[in-house]
Structures are given as C-alpha cells and as structure tokens.
Amino acid sequence: MVDYLFCTGSLNPIHMEFTPTGFATRNITTDIPTRQNFLTTILGNMLTSNLNLTISCDEMFKEEYNNYYMTAAKAFSPIPPSYDSSTKTYTIKTPNELVWLEQKFNTDNDDAACTVRLANDIDLEGYYWTPMVYAGADEGMLFDGGGFKICNINIDANNTDYAGLFGNVSNGRFENLTLENVTINNAAKFVGAFTGSIHANGFIKNCTAKHVWIRGYDYDKERDYGNQNLGYDYGGLVGIFYTIDNNETYGFKDCTSFDIDIFASGRLDGIVAFLNNDGAGANASFLLENCKAENCRLHVSYHKSSRGHANWLREIGSLVGALQIDDAVKFKNCSRNDLTYMFGWV
After folding, report:
1. Which of 114, 145, 306, 311: disulfide with 176, CB 3.0–4.6 Å?
2. What does pTM read for this prediction?
C-alpha cells in the first residue's frame, strides 16, 4: 500500500487507522510525526498480528520549497482594526486586520508610538507575508499577543536584508505571543521568526517560536563569495539584537524556541544569533532569563571563501551565537535540549 499526505497546515502527528475490506480495523497507537518540508516514510506489515513499523525522516528531501505560497488563491483583504486613540492601541481579531497593519507599517514613513494587541489566534495559511518594519518613535511599540498565536507565516525573503514577522524593529517589545509554523525561504542577512533585527530599546517576554524553518539564500548552491561576507545572523526568535548607549536592560525573559531548522551561512542560533552594541561603550546590559531552546537543528554551510571567515563557523549556539558588547550579559535559569549542529561543504 502506498499513500502520500501533503501537509500545508497543522504539523501535529498523524494517527493512522486502517479498515481493509474483510479485515478487522487496525490502529497504529503510536502517532506518526510529520514536519513541514520533510519526507516521513513508514514501512511495515499492517495486516498481520505482528505489526512492526520503521519510521524514517529523510533529512535530504529536496522538494523543500515548491512555490505553494506564491500561487495560493487564498488571500486576506486589509480591514482596519479597532483603534483606541486614548491608549494608542490597535486590537487585532482577524487575519484581514493583521494584513492591514502589515501594509500600514510598510507604507507609513512616520511610525507613531502604539500598542498592538491580539484578541484571537490568527491563521495566515495561504497568504504571502511581507515582513513589517517599525521605524520607531521614542516611546516605541508594544506587540502584545495576549496569550494568542499567529500561525502559518510564510515568507519568500527574496534575498533582502531583513525577514521575520517583522523585518526590523526600533524601540519595540514583544510579549505573550506564540509564532507557530514559520517558513522563511531565500533569507539573506538578518532573520528570525519574530524579527530579523531589533535596534535600540527592545525586550521580548513570554514569547515562543514553534516549528520554524529558515533557508538562507542559495544555501545549497556552490558560490564563491570572494571577500564578501558569506552570511549574517539567523536566530529562532531574533537575528541580531542591537542596542544604543544608555543604561537600560534588554533581552529575553520566559522565552522558548522549539523545533527550529535553520539552513544558512553565518551565525546560527536557537534564540538570538548576535547580541551587539557595536563597541560604542554602551552601558546597556543584556538579560536572558528562564529561556530555553529545544529540538533545534542548525545546518551551517561552508562556502569556498568562508575559509577566510572560519571564526563565523564557531559562532553557532543554542541560546546565543555571538556576543559583541562592552557591558554585562546575564544568563539566569536557561537551558537547551536536543540541539544538533551540522556542518557541510558547498
């Protein structure tokens, strides 16, 4: 018997039940795991009393990106969300309202201080997402998920510099938000599920990135980069976290990355790839508290020219890939489990 199941939505395990004509119903009590962009093969005799199955996950499955999201018929027309002018709060209840916010942030040249609050789970299945950019008023933006999640975020980064739910955020905070089933293809420089880059005042609290798949631009092609930088920062939650000179504390608290696949050249990490204040003598300090990375697979390619950038191949981490700061970094009650690091020559 041969069957194929193509998963474009939920990545929950499949529970199988067979009722062949003339035979009793057969239940396979162990759920079969599925993961987007991977081929799961099940072998076994399903009709006898001695049922033995072999389940394999093909890491080299080449049909990893089939342009499904570029041709999806389903789309969401932008609809303005409710807005409370006294608190400067947008309340997002539908995908259409989130798409409106996407277009506002990406066309507004003067981003005012605001709060964005989710009031429902948001499913963007079938929509081609363009990473938002928040230029940042001094008071900043708070994106409060309210305990809800945004799922099925699908991005063709098209070799641009920043990619994620947000491409770049200045003076921004994220709280109480889960991002689930995030696919970012053709990623270029700064990439993370929440944002490719946070600049200036920023903090991420009680947030989770779950089932994230990031593929760098031309990851599996042989290219001679010469003296160019071969890649940049690819993290499960954030690519690069960059601060300015002040006395604030930045970082992550109560955050989790789970089931993360990253294929790229450069710094790779489960939480944040690069913490950086650029040697500007900043008094800022970074905090990572109650954070964990679980079930992450980091595949770093080693291009021809990267022999001159061999240090970057060492900047692969579970919580942080690399640090470039002048002040303190504090880790409190953090953990990582089931991390796999893979190195390849292209």
Report:
1. 145
2. 0.78
